[in-house]
């Protein structure tokens, strides 16, 4: 390995949805033992950038890992998961569910995991076959021409506060009801080539992410205040919201994710089995 390869700037993809704040809030690349740049983006954008090598490490949609897992390693003990209602992955129904099953659903296209979870819910759980169309995340505009609309992240949260008469289905709650398992919506992944080329840099980033997670779990008040300031709502709402999330990646989260990948294969959304291969933190952390 040449000196230039060893010292190459490492790029970290960062989503700014509230559901990743318990890991990312307080993250400071200046504390790392390497040269690093944080690249902000929506989930679909970071999925693409990691796939194409424009960034080296990121929180990405679980489905994006399923598509490209042979190029990635998972960072252990980090995810965005929920064992039930998640409050930010919501399907708003203008029409009765019986009509929605074979009607039109407009979808915010910012998360491949949730878009495909919706297809699993509609087709495997409810036996439907709706038409799906991508749209900008504006609930009123989406429902002008559709029977239901899927919103994700902070857009879903705000729309739930302003909802005027729609039935609202929480995809995390539906998944838990039908499978008995939690659902992992995002994982932290590093490109294998980056892990081989700069193992010390990856170790430094991983240590900082875990340290941020520990601090935010020990004292959640700063992220609750930030959520109220930036998104709205009350402290009680946000404490309940963060209570419903898990940012671990233990055996239960992995079992739920493997079942999700199995269903995705059965619907033809993935071509083959997905192996959950984790970066060897026992060596580098």
Concise synopsis of the structure shown:
Pfam families: VitK2_biosynth. The chain is of the alpha/beta class and 285 residues long. Helix content is 46%, strand content 21%.
SSE inventory with pairings:
Elements: H1 3-6, E1 10-14, H2 21-24, E2 36-40, H3 43-51, E3 57-61, H4 62-68, E4 72-82, E5 89-93, H5 97-100, E6 104-108, H6 112-125, E7 131-135, H7 139-143, E8 148-152, H8 153-162, E9 167-170, H9 171-179, E10 183-191, H10 192-197, H11 199-218, H12 221-230, H13 235-243, E11 245-246, H14 251-266, H15 281-284
Parallel strand pairs: 1-2, 1-3, 6-7, 6-8
Antiparallel strand pairs: 3-10, 4-10, 4-11, 5-8, 5-9
Plain-language structure description:
Belongs to the MqnA/MqnD family. MqnA subfamily. Catalyzes the dehydration of chorismate into 3-[(1-carboxyvinyl)oxy]benzoate, a step in the biosynthesis of menaquinone (MK, vitamin K2). Pathway: Quinol/quinone metabolism; menaquinone biosynthesis. The protein is α/β, with parallel strands linked by helices and 285 residues long. Strand 1, helix 2 and strand 2 form a beta-alpha-beta unit. It is globular and about 55 Å long. It contains 15 helices and 11 strands. It has 2 domains: 3-81 and 183-284, Periplasmic binding protein-like II (D-Maltodextrin-Binding Protein, domain 2), CATH 3.40.190; 89-179, D-Maltodextrin-Binding Protein, domain 2. The chain is 46% helix and 21% strand. It starts with a helix and ends with a helix.
């Amino acid at each position: 390995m040449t000196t230039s390869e060893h010292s190459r700037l490492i790029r970290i993809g960062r989503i700014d949805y509230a559901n990743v704040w318990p890991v990312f809030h307080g993250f400071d690349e200046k504390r790392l033992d390497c040269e690093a740049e944080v690249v902000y983006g929506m989930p679909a954008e970071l999925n693409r950038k990691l796939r194409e090598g424009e960034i080296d490490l990121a929180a990405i949609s679980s489905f994006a890992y399923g598509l490209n897992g042979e190029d990635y390693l998972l960072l252990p003990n980090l995810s965005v998961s929920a064992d039930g209602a998640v409050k930010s992955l919501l399907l708003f129904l203008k029409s009765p569910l019986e009509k929605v099953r074979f009607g039109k659903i407009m979808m915010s296209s910012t998360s491949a995991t949730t878009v495909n979870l919706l297809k699993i819910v509609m087709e495997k759980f409810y036996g439907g076959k709706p038409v799906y169309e991508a749209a900008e995340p504006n609930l009123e505009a989406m429902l002008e021409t559709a029977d239901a609309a899927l919103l994700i992240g902070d857009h879903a949260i705000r729309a739930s506060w302003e909802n005027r008469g729609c039935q609202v289905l929480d995809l995390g709650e539906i998944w838990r009801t039908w499978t008995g398992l939690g659902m992992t919506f995002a994982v932290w992944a590093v490109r294998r080539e980056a892990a081989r080329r700069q193992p010390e840099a990856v170790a430094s980033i991983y240590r900082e992410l875990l340290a941020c997670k520990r601090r935010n779990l020990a004292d959640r008040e700063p992220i609750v205040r930030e959520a109220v300031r930036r998104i709205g709502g009350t402290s009680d709402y946000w404490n309940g919201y963060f209570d419903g999330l898990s940012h671990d990646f233990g055996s239960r989260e992995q079992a739920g994710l493997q079942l999700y990948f199995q269903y995705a294969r059965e619907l033809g959304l993935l071509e083959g089995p997905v192996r959950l291969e984790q970066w060897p933190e026992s060596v580098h952390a």
